[in-house]
Amino acid sequence: MPIGADLVLHEESEPGRARNDGHALGRVIERAARRWETPLAVPLMDLRLEKIDLLALAGVPAAKAEIFHFEAPLDEDALTALCGEESVPGCAGSRARDEALDFVRAQTDLIPVGMAIGPFSLTTRLLADPITLAAMMGAGVTAEESDGVQLLNQCLRMAEAAVRRSVRSQIEHGARAIMICEPAACIAFISPRQLKAGSDLFERAVMEPNLRLKALMEEAGCDLIFHDCGELIGPMVEAFAQRLHPVVLSLGSSRKLWEDAQFVPRDVVLYGNLPTKSFYSDSAMPVAEVVRRTKELIQKMKACGHPHIVGSECDVLFVPEARDAIWKKVDAMVACAAAGSCCTKG
Amino acid sequence: MAENNELYNAILNGDAKKAHAATEVALAAGAQPMELIADSMVPAMNEVGRLFEAEEYFVPELLLAGRAMKSAMELLRPLMIASGQKLSTRIVIGTVKGDLHDIGKNIVASMLEGSGFEVIDLGADVSPENFVAAVEERKPQVVCMSALLTVTMPAMKTTIDALVSAGLRKQVKVLIGGAPVTSQYAREIGADGYSENASGAVSLVKSLLTAA
Question: What is the pTM of this model?
Answer without folding.
Answer: 0.88
